[in-house]
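A brief tutorial aside. Many learners find it easier to grasp structure tokens once they have seen a single protein encoded end to end. The record that follows does exactly this for Quinolinate synthase. Read the sequence first, then the structure, and try to relate runs of similar tokens to stretches of the chain.
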Amino acid sequence: VQQTSKLKEEILRLKKEKDVVILAHNYQVPEVQDVADFTGDSLGLSRQAAKVPQKTILFCGVNFMAETAAIISPQKKVILPDLEAGCSLSDSITVDELRDWKKQHPGAIAVGYVNTTAEIKAELDYCCTSSNAVNVVKAIPEDNEILFLPDMFLGSYVAKMTGRKNMHIWAGECHVHAGITPEDVTKKLDSMKDAEFVIHPECSCTTPMMYDVADGSFDDQKVSILSTEGMLNHVKESKAKNFVVATETGILYRMRQQNPGKTFIPASEKAECQYMKMITLEKVYDALVDEKNVVTVPKEIADKARLAINRMLTIS
Ligand code: 13P
Ligand code: SF4
């Protein structure tokens, strides 16, 4: 404990001295969230990356998030404490696969989740995150075919919510969210009968439930499908006292901190992203000292990818 608080103090001192801003995703370990200037979802962190005055961003998240920050702010230095922090979802489509898919559907609009590599983003018309995917698709004229990638659960959720029939959906998934089973969910909801249920749209268990969500009911237990920041806002405003949460368990730290009178249980304790958890306080400290592990995106890729990201940022 003493070691951790000493490290935290050092990080806080160093980031001030070096004028570095620390951004952390909602899935980061508690002690990393504690030293961050901003904690949020992918969309919120992209906005912060563009807005902050500091010239150096220490990004506590995974590779595609740091790349997005580097694309939006090419004049800033973006550091990722562990360059191996990847994402199974962003690995689920290659740029060659995307080019082939586009060739099969000439004229279709390519909409890609922020959980993609910079190379993939450079091939997109629009980028989206879990909090604005529905609005991004709604902004595309009805008669345009859409290629939605790479998450099939987010894709089918968006298709259901927009009523869109001409959307082709890539069959990718996040192993953490896809791994939360309907059995896990049923068990937890049964153990807390009055709980509200909040689900991230990357969850495979979203599929049977979204029909009930669209109808406004699910077995008497209120269900909301939301991005991580959307969940945090929702549970704060809700009158309910108990919540079952279907997403990566890192989010529970902020939920519990911000709502001391409420109870939050994970839909599955196993829902941990090993990539997010690769960022430790020690690595944050080392990254601040050395300013190594800089994430860069080649200019020609960044310039193209920025168009898709900026289109998203102006819609939502
Ligand atoms: P959010 O955009 O909801 O924060 O999700 C990012 C992510 O990686 C989900 O697994
Ligand atoms: Fe990627 Fe899933 Fe981890 Fe999010 S939780 S970073 S989608 S592997």
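Self-check: The mean pLDDT is 93. If you spotted this yourself, you are ready for the next section.
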